[in-house]
């Protein structure tokens, strides 16, 4: 299967792109956060942040975004575990 890989650590997503990606997954920003990153402790932990605030922080600190996220058409999944890919109906 042909695919395009985007390393969003090297090519960070804008807040708008990240919001669209999360909408495709059906995840809220806090559900896609990597909580063991130093940036999480520095910018997120213990704060009552809105979804838009979290998205802006995640766009500024791309290491906070769980990966991999796989997109197929208008749907995407956080492929952890890899069995989640079945939700995209690959044949």
Catalogue the unreliable spans.
Answer: none
Strand adjacency order, main sheet: 1-2
What would CATH call the homologous superfamily?
A: Glutaredoxin
Alpha-beta content class: alpha+beta
Count of helical stretches = 3
CATH topology name: Glutaredoxin
Which bin fits the share of residues in helices? 25-40%
CATH architecture: 3-Layer(aba) Sandwich
Cα(first) to Cα(last) distance is 10 Å
Number of domains: 1
Percent of sequence in beta strands? 5-15%
The 3D shape can be described as: globular
Mean pLDDT: 90
Characterize the largest beta sheet: strand count, sense, and whether it forms a barrel.
2 strands, antiparallel
| DSSP strand tally | 2
Rg for CA atoms: 13 Å
Task: Please report the first level of CATH classification, the CATH class.
Answer: Alpha Beta
Report on this model:
- The chain has 91 residues and is an alpha+beta fold.
- The protein has a single domain (15-88), classed as Glutaredoxin.
- Helix content is 30%, strand content 9%.
- The protein has three helices and two strands; from the N terminus they run αααββ.
- It has helices spanning 15-25, 38-43, 51-60; strands at 69-72, 75-78.
- A two-stranded antiparallel sheet has the order 1-2.
- Helix 1 (15-25) crosses helix 3.
- It is globular and about 40 Å long.
- The mean pLDDT is 90.
Keywords:
91 residues; 2 strands; Glutaredoxin; globular; single chain; alpha+beta
